[in-house]
Fold this protein.
Amino acid sequence: MDSVHLPALQVVVPLLTAPIVAVLRDARLSWLAAVVTSVMTFVVSVYIVQHVLAGAVLSYQMGGWAAPYGIELRVDSLNALMLLVVSGASTLALLAGRQSLTLQIGEERLPLFMAAWLLALAGLVGILVSGDAFNIFVFMEISSLASYILISGGPDRRALPSVFKYLIAGTLGATFYLIGVGMVYMMTGTLNIADMEARLAGVGDTNVVFVAAGFITIGLALKAAIYPMHAWMPNAYTFAPNIVTAFIAACSTKVALYVLLRMDFFVFQKNLVDHESQFTYLLMPLALLGIVFGSVAAVFERNIKRILAFSSVAQIGYILLGASLISVSGFTAAVLHLFNHALAKSALFLAVAAMGLYFARLRLQVLRGAGRKMPWTFAAFVVAGLSLIGVPGTAGFVSKWALISAALESNLVVPLLVLILGSSLLAIVYIGRIVEHLWFGDATDKAVQIGEAPSWMLAMVWLAVAANIWFGLDSSLPMALAQQSAIDLLRQLP
């Protein structure tokens, strides 16, 4: 496969397949077409990672027009890893989700739902490969609009007010981002990210550029659900169809974090005076507050999906904390945790989706005793939960250890270590509460009647769990990409 075309194929495959899937009338065929498309997207991302690991930076000029006059698609170590996360999460969720989607969406609506899924996938990978700030916005809107459909498509009508809140937050975030990009364009006359950085050198000390950086940061913080701008996320995750939650929880906020790091370090760091300190002083307190709030809120929740949603608020805090340390070790830990958290959350929500085949409501009181009737599903949930906590031998341990190592190099070593270890203890508490109810609780009438998850779905759940164990024992692939990403980002410092 010619590496020149790989970035374009990453977007074109799901984008062109979506309208074809929409006109299919057979539910099984539409699901199969979506699976094949997602698998193809994942295979392309694997090829991209191989080229990037060999030292290549892939660039594709749309229409043959060279940047900055044409639109450029560009892939380096940072977005190569993210492409693997997004396409892998989509593929795994679709492979596992046939029965869950049929139950919650219905066969009649499944073709249109699968088309929306592929549009969301195309939008997310489009954001990642775009080297143009405006086209990031375009793909952001494609993925957001499709995600609204996915979240509201289930049987729970509480998803409608949840998706409306998500729509408001997403629209505000995208608008703030676009205003910031417009202000930078006003000062530079270009939308290409690399060209923006070069042209800002002569005007970087102006108030306009400083305000533009503020708009872009706040807009992307809303999209990434950074505390305290996370209010849309818990209900969106809770009331979305279960397989949709497994997909978006693994990658949607991570993509927004990627754009935040890309824009800040590749556009503003060299061109704003003392921006390194501004980045740390603004985002580190939000990261610390997010870790504390997300962990504590998860302890007191009663719905298993809301517990995991608030856990994501804390995990986003971990990622942001590593980035705010402004060091190679800190950025390596941040990018590594971004990858490993996606692995853990994908496995956890897939296990929850397996439980959702039998339980319409996923409150802990309703699920009491279900673990004993679904031992393999429950065991998969426990192992993925251990990865979320950061137990040795799992992927979560690798990135948390990297974060602790980065904290040891900082001037705030004691409070950071206390916070990281304390929040990990809280993770033991909220995962332990789930284990207590599902395994040790007296079985409800509904739990007595259920059985193990279907074998194919269970195989996909354990595949996700196996990935958590594999990358916990051999983290060379994500570590290599994370370290190169950290070096590339810090190279932008003045």
In short: The two ends are 38 Å apart (CA to CA). The chain has 21 helices and two strands.
